[in-house]
Design goal:
The chain is built from five helices and five strands. The strands form two sheets. Strands 1-2-3 form a three-stranded parallel sheet, with no helix packed on it. Helix 2 links the parallel strand 1 and strand 2. Helix 1 runs parallel beside helix 2. The radius of gyration is 19 Å and the shape is globular. The two termini are 13 Å apart. GO terms for molecular function: NAD(P)H oxidase H2O2-forming activity. Keywords: Oxidoreductase. InterPro entries: Fe_red_NAD-bd_6, FNR_nucleotide-bd, RBOH/FRE. One of its GO terms (cellular component) is plasma membrane.
């Protein structure tokens, strides 16, 4: 899934480069970048970048797992000035949000994030949540924000969650004007 996020970041960079070139008058009939993400269709203007919004949910038991992709998470936080990628980190080994035992961690996390812009759990600019996401609320929010749209849901993880996520995609596709297409890769 990180490769998908990286592809979106590369497409955003290419689009920004192209727009900057056009603004500075260097955009003529060709693009200054040789990036493979900046390919044009014959006779078309601009990049072929279609992604309008991406929601990335990373659920892990171990805090140290966030270290693997710290660089890309910080890059997204720094470069995504249009709000294309919304990132959510969930650490399930910590008590649930709202639990009295996690209040101190949440308070330290908020203070550190406000003061330094860095999350104490993930070590990135992306703020971490505790426990597992409420997937029904996730689908509901996306359906409300993207009425009459087609949304791809891509899941990579343990098979146990596949059934729930597929069922929610089906339920929300039938109950709302948003159509969810579920795809999975289990390990």
């Amino acid at each position: 899934m990180i490769s998908i996020v990286k592809d979106i970041v590369n497409n955003m960079k290419a689009k920004d480069e192209e727009e900057n070139a056009l603004e500075s008058g260097n955009g003529g009939g060709h693009t200054p970048s040789t990036s493979p993400y900046n390919k044009r269709k014959p006779g078309s203007q601009g990049t072929n970048f279609k992604t309008r919004r991406a929601y990335f949910y990373w659920v892990t038991r171990e805090q140290g797992s966030f270290e693997w992709f710290k660089g890309i998470m910080n890059e997204v936080a720094e470069l995504d000035n249009r709000g294309v990628i919304e990132m959510h980190n969930y650490c399930t080994s910590v008590y649930e949000e709202g639990d009295a035992r996690s209040a101190l961690i949440a308070m330290l996390q908020s203070l550190n994030h406000a003061k330094h812009g860095v999350d104490v759990v993930s070590g990135t600019r992306v703020k971490s949540h505790f426990a597992k996401p409420n997937w029904r609320n996730v689908y509901k929010r996306i359906a409300l924000n993207h009425t009459d749209s087609r949304v791809g849901v891509f899941y990579c993880g343990a098979p146990a969650l596949t059934k729930e996520l597929r069922q929610l995609a089906s339920d929300f596709s039938h109950k709302t004007s948003t159509k969810f297409d579920f795809h999975k890769e289990n390990f």
